[in-house]
């Protein structure tokens, strides 16, 4: 069950990011670096984070944002927030 939920979260997360980048969600790898591989700059990141917070009804702190450099790390933060609910 947890694997199904995790897969759903990853899929939704990719869709949010893909929408911002105007790419197909399946092209976004778990180990993709947000800046280097995906080209998300600080302005784009604000928009992406806002969309993620809206999609998952969570709040991501500035400290947590500073710890996110890959899609996997972003998933871990979002997944952790959802599990707290």
Automatic annotation (TrEMBL):
Gene3D superfamilies: ACP-like (1.10.1200.10). Keywords: Cytoplasm, Fatty acid biosynthesis, Fatty acid metabolism, Lipid biosynthesis, Lipid metabolism, Phosphopantetheine, Phosphoprotein. 4'-phosphopantetheine is transferred from CoA to a specific serine of apo-ACP by AcpS. This modification is essential for activity because fatty acids are bound in thioester linkage to the sulfhydryl of the prosthetic group. It is found in: Cytoplasm. Pathway: Lipid metabolism; fatty acid biosynthesis. Pfam families: PP-binding. The modification O-(pantetheine 4'-phosphoryl)serine is found at residue 42. Residues 7-82 form the Carrier domain. The keyword Lipid biosynthesis applies. One of its GO terms (cellular component) is cytoplasm. GO terms for molecular function: acyl binding; acyl carrier activity. Its main location: cytoplasm. It comes from the Bacteria. Carrier of the growing fatty acid chain in fatty acid biosynthesis. Belongs to the acyl carrier protein (ACP) family. This is Acyl carrier protein. The gene is acpP.
């Amino acid at each position: 069950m947890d694997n199904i939920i995790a897969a759903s979260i990853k899929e939704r997360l990719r869709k949010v990011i893909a929408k911002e980048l105007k790419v197909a969600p399946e092209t976004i790898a778990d180990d993709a670096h947000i800046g280097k591989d995906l080209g998300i700059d600080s302005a784009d990141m604000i928009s992406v984070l806002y969309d993620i917070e809206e999609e998952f009804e969570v709040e991501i702190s500035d400290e947590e944002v500073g710890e996110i450099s890959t899609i996997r790390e972003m998933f871990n933060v979002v997944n952790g927030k959802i599990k707290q609910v």
